[in-house]
């Protein structure tokens, strides 16, 4: 990771109600939600960029990093409620919410459940309405995690996310991601991945109700969070915007941070409704 992509020391960090979190910078709140198998530190390039003029909140989703392991019957709404509880603790009335992969599902769930608390929502490398073949493959991977553990799936995960073999210019990023995968809580990872595997259609009816600017961004060469998926989601959302990143694969926030950061910055300049602006202004000091 380049020195300019290393996050500064957080203004606030800790664990509240089983959620490990960090806060950087100041300004309009911006929440970054990592994907399955990762952790809050995967957002270091985005924290370094946006903490200059946003209050950036990163945290470990349930089952990851320093956060508590969810119960076996955990639902997507529990992950959205985790974020709502964290924002309550931080006295943040509303925020921009950006999620990657599983984090994108959580971001959309949060936006649909708590629309008054969501200024803008961005779903990076999100899954939506998998084909029968894609659904069978991801359910098979979820089953493998339950029975063979994380270690047996790491190499195939890296191949999906970075290519096989991993291109030389992406090896540093792949090694970083591999470290997250090998250090993740195996039970938390398996339970979250099982939910990720079965939640691709959960927002099909809800997307037309998204009441805020919504960005759907993915990589041109991400086969499992495909451009077709993001295109379909953007078409359903009333204020949906589609952004396909040429040449990118699944971990584009890590492999092409400068490009992704600029695209996100452009999206965050999108005007929000008067109601959302009023909610933001009412944030406690």
From TrEMBL:
InterPro entries on file: AB_hydrolase, AB_hydrolase_1, AB_hydrolase_fold, Epox_hydrolase-like
Stretches assigned to the AB hydrolase-1 domain: 29-256
Protein name according to UniProt: Alpha/beta hydrolase fold protein
Keywords: Hydrolase
Domain of life (superkingdom): Bacteria
Cell inner membrane listed as a keyword: no
A family per Pfam: Abhydrolase_1
Keyword Cytoplasm: no
Molecular functions (GO terms): hydrolase activity
Organism field: Pseudogulbenkiania ferrooxidans 2002
């Amino acid at each position: 990771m380049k020195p300019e992509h290393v996050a500064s020391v957080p203004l606030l960090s800790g664990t509240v109600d089983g959620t490990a979190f960090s806060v950087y910078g100041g300004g309009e709140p911006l929440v970054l939600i990592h994907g399955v198998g990762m952790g809050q530190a995967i957002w270091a390039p985005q924290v370094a960029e946006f903490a200059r003029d946003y209050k950036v909140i990163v945290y470990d989703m349930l089952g990851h990093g320093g956060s508590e392991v969810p119960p076996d019957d955990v639902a997507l709404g529990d992950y959205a409620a985790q974020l709502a509880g964290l924002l309550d603790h931080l006295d943040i009335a509303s925020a921009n919410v950006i999620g990657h992969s599983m984090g994108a599902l959580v971001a959309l769930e949060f936006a649909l459940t708590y629309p008054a608390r969501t200024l803008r929502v961005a779903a990076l490398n999100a899954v939506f309405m998998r084909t029968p073949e894609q659904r069978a493959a991801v359910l098979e991977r979820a089953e493998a995690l339950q029975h063979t553990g994380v270690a047996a799936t790491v190499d195939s995960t890296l191949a999906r996310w970075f290519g096989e073999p991993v291109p030389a210019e992406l090896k540093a990023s792949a090694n970083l991601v591999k470290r997250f995968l090998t250090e993740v809580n195996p039970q938390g990872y398996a339970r979250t991945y099982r939910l990720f595997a079965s939640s691709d259609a959960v927002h099909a009816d809800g997307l037309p109700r998204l009441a805020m600017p919504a960005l759907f961004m993915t990589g041109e060469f991400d086969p499992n969070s495909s451009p077709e998926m993001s295109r379909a989601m953007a078409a359903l959302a009333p204020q949906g915007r589609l952004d396909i990143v040429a040449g990118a694969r699944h971990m584009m926030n890590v492999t092409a941070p400068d490009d992704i950061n600029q695209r996100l910055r452009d999206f965050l300049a999108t005007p929000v409704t008067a109601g959302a602006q009023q909610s933001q202004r009412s944030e406690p000091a």
